[in-house]
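Input record, target 12 of the design panel.
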């Protein structure tokens, strides 16, 4: 019995298609199988060219690499737009995230951010902030301000001891740079000697006091006690 030639050709074609279908299934579920947003896509290595406005992110594993088209580059990478391809490039070795190759936004552990750079130690004139991993400018304080009015229990009148306060703030240059500086306060005792409305001077209430020096008052008392002095 002779087998028809057309049947033999069909069986041979089906045998050739079987390995290719298996290969496509394996690649479709692998790292290089995602061709979303691609213009040129390879089953082995994924995307090599992306649609406009998308970035090509290449992930390397050993000697193999896989391309993927993304809207935003992942942490540790920054986007660079080109005439043909927009690419995701890796940040510097000390950067956790960055705006460009030369400008870091966040540093890796044990490094401190200072003017876009990640440094192992903060430069002179700055202090390391452990909570933010940043080098903060040390404050340059300005001159002391004027003393405030003397107050006692919140009032600027009366006859008692009060307090007056003055403030020392950071210089205007440091304020414009955004440095967080501690404001210094200084207080001292002061006499409040201004009568409040409707209040009389305490010295007027108790009568006029002898304001002569103490030694003169003692001398008068001794003269009054001398014998033979005529009594009034």
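The sequence produced for target 12 reads:
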């Amino acid at each position: 019995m002779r087998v028809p030639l057309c049947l033999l050709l069909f069986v041979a074609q089906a045998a050739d298609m079987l390995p290719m279908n298996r290969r496509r299934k394996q690649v479709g579920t692998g790292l290089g199988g995602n061709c979303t947003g691609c213009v040129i896509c390879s089953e082995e290595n994924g995307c090599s060219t992306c649609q406009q406005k998308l970035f090509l992110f290449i992930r390397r594993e050993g000697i193999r690499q896989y391309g993927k088209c993304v809207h935003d580059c992942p942490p540790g990478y920054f986007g660079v737009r080109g005439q043909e391809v927009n690419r995701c490039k890796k940040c510097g070795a000390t950067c956790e995230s960055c705006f460009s190759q030369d400008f870091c936004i966040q540093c890796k552990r044990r490094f401190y951010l200072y003017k876009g750079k990640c440094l192992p130690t903060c430069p002179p004139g700055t202090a390391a902030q452990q909570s933010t991993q940043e080098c903060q400018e040390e404050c340059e304080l300005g001159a002391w301000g004027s003393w405030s009015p003397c107050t006692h229990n919140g009032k600027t009148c009366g006859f008692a001891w009060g307090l007056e306060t003055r403030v020392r703030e950071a210089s205007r240059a440091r304020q414009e740079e955004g440095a967080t500086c501690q404001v210094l306060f200084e207080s001292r005792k002061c006499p409040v000697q201004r009568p409040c409305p409707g209040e009389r001077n305490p010295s007027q209430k108790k009568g006029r006091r002898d304001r002569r020096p103490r030694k003169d008052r003692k001398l008068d008392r001794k003269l009054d006690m001398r014998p033979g002095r005529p009594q009034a």
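The chain has four helices and 14 strands.
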